[in-house]
């Protein structure tokens, strides 16, 4: 009888006008409001009539223009007030009606705010609705106190993505042991928390598939557990050695992707226990050649391996039938690369020098990227070695040169009968840096003797690159070839092969709209 009575009451409520039903939704918690959509077609129609919002203040150009303008100290209060008015004005509808929020994203400095409690209000307004993605990062100036994350953050059961940065996460954090059963991605960046807070969060978010702990402070013994669905894990240790983890324990039997960035110390957990691992990235760890060889052999499903700034590595020597992508980046060059990986499709190598011994058995390689940062004298033999190295690839997608060398020579007579045909396997050559003292003429001659790329591009960020760009414009755009320039030589210079050239300029911006980080690039399209 009680159930029948409740049903009759609900039927009567459903007959009320839509505006009144919307008003009722406003006073319900977000979870209960969402559940009304299954009660009847009337409630479903009301739910579907809710406005759909996306609040992305990181892309709000008026905000960034306001904050990036240099102001006198006396005008700072006006700037802060204007900042608050822009955000408050955008959120005004949330104060009077329920809404579905696809995304709420805000990055800001605490110094922008006169009263930091407004952050609590903004998060409360967002989480009081059916919100899918919440992304809030605050940045403290040196010496500023930590700002504690409001407890209402973990009350939005509709959350699918939660990214937080710059907060202090006090324990206990989760209100009434609430569970965020829909949460799939959780990211904590530059936060201060304790070990028990991480355990509390893991327990409250059992469905998380992607967990990112970036430079978390306050944790000494890291334990990640109670996440049976976790398939992707990212751990970056804080830069300060004082925040280095003493121990790391990861209980994740279904883990498929792991990115770990340490502090130049020994690896503190056994990666080979994750037998389903397909992607592995390790940075700044003192792992040895033998450790890498064991990793590849003990992880039968490993398809992608990245090794960044692992300074103890001397050789890469292993065999794998599953590996499809291999990346090595370091300021320290390898001595030897001997790899048997028949299914490898992408290879990237970045270091100061080429390895002395290079052998790669692969029949599927499709993409190859080579970044060199030479600092020694660039001689004719250096270009010969580079050409011999490049000839081992069927195709090299990109050759990047960041040249710290201050002297260079390229003398054709020293080639000793080396074949004159430049390689066409290199598709693109990019020069990020050249030194002013280099001889641009011999650098260009050596480079275009080595390969005939489809494009030659130069970044203008380095102060002396502009001189090199101007030199290239003059030399490459000259269409006349002196008929006697190479008549006495069996080896012809690049001028005899270049048929057509086009020049394009472009500018790319990095970071948020307020950032002044822009990279200008000049690209020479070459037809041979």
UniProtKB/TrEMBL annotation:
Matching Pfam families, A to Z? F-box, LRR_At1g61320_AtMIF1, LRR_At5g56370
Residue ranges of the F-box domain?
10-67
- Name it: F-box domain-containing protein
């Amino acid at each position: 009888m009680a159930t029948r009575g409740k049903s009759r009451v609900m039927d009567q409520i459903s007959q009320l006008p839509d505006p009144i039903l919307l008003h009722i939704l406003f006073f319900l918690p977000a979870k209960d409001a969402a559940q009304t959509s299954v009660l009847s077609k009337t409630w479903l129609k009301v739910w579907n009539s809710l406005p759909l919002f996306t609040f992305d203040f990181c892309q709000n150009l008026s905000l960034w223009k306001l904050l990036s303008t240099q102001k006198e100290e006396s005008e700072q209060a006006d700037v802060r007030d204007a900042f608050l008015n822009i955000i408050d004005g955008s959120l005004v509808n949330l104060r009077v009606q329920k809404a579905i929020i696809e995304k709420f994203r805000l990055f800001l400095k605490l110094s922008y705010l006169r009263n930091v409690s407004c952050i609590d209000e903004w998060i409360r307004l967002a989480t009081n609705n059916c919100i899918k993605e919440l992304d809030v990062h605050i940045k403290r100036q040196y010496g500023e106190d930590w700002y504690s994350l409001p407890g209402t953050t973990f009350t939005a059961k509709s959350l699918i993505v939660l990214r937080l940065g710059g907060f202090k996460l006090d324990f206990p954090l989760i209100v009434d042991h609430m569970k965020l059963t829909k949460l799939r991605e959780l990211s904590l960046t530059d936060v201060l928390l304790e070990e028990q807070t991480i355990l509390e969060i893991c327990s409250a978010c059992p469905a998380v598939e992607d967990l990112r702990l970036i430079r978390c402070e306050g944790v000494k013994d890291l334990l990640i557990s109670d996440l049976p669905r976790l398939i992707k894990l990212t751990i970056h240790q804080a830069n300060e050695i004082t925040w280095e983890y003493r121990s790391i324990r990861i209980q994740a039997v279904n883990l498929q992707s792991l990115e770990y960035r340490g502090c130049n110390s020994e690896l503190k957990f056994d990666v080979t226990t994750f037998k389903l691992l397909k992607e592995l990235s390790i940075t700044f760890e003192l792992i040895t050649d033998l450790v890498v060889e064991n990793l590849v052999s003990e992880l039968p499903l490993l398809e992608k391996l990245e090794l960044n700034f692992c300074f103890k590595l001397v050789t890469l020597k292993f065999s794998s039938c599953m590996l499809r992508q291999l990346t090595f980046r370091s300021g320290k060059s390898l001595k030897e690369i001997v790899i048997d990986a028949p299914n490898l499709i992408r290879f990237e190598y970045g270091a100061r020098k080429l390895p002395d011994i290079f052998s790669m058995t692969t029949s599927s390689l499709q993409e190859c990227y080579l970044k060199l940062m030479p600092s020694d004298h660039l001689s004719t033999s250096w270009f010969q070695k580079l050409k011999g190295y490049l000839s081992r690839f069927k195709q090299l997608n990109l050759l990047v040169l960041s040249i710290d060398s201050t002297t260079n020579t390229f003398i054709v007579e020293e080639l000793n009968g080396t074949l004159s045909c430049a390689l066409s396997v290199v598709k693109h050559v990019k020069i990020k840096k050249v030194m002013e003292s280099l001889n641009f003429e011999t650098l260009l001659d050596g480079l275009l003797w080595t390969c005939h790329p489809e494009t030659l591009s130069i970044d203008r960020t380095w102060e002396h690159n502009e001189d090199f760009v101007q030199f290239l414009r003059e030399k490459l755009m000259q269409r006349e070839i002196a008929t006697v320039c190479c008549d006495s030589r069996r080896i012809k210079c690049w001028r005899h092969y270049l048929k057509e050239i086009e020049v394009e300029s472009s500018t790319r911006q990095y970071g948020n709209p307020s950032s002044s980080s822009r990279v200008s690039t000049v690209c020479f399209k070459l037809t041979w």
